[in-house]
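Morning F.,

Quick status update on the modeling queue. The single chain you submitted on Monday has been processed. Sequence for confirmation:
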Amino acid sequence: MAASWLSLHRRGLLTAPRLGVVWLAGWYAVAVLGATMLPLQLAWGEAAGEPELYRFLLVPVATMRPDDFVLNIVMTLPLAALLHTVFGIRDKGRVVRLGFVLSAAIESTQAVLLLSLHGNRWADVNDLIANTLGAWLGYLAFQRLLRLAAVRRLVGRSSLDPGPRPTADYRMSP
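Structure tokens below.
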């Protein structure tokens, strides 16, 4: 948190809304990491036994755990707003692709840990689908929120990107 304050200060971008957005983005990253990797129990050597291959769920929908699917959608809903304000990413395609890449990285890490260190997490294709869907739905919701003048003003004050700010005529693309 101190490093983000110092970085914004040195770049001449330090304001309370910008600092708040950077801190929220950091806490979001910590929350995603915690939700997807913890608790993490690892084992190795002969005593660890064989990897629990049933923890690989590769058949979409048929092997879906509905509660996990919904939670994975919710987990990536804020992604579009954070990408917009912190990195200036405003394109729907990029947001959805980044949601997919983030999810693929998480699931790949879980798979590698499962195979190599007998991790206790699941590698699930449904999580990949849900996270990508959450990124898309988050983008749509954020675009709707940008129709509100107060939200546009807050986003404009909070954005770290020097690019175009949302204006009063900012509209959701078809």
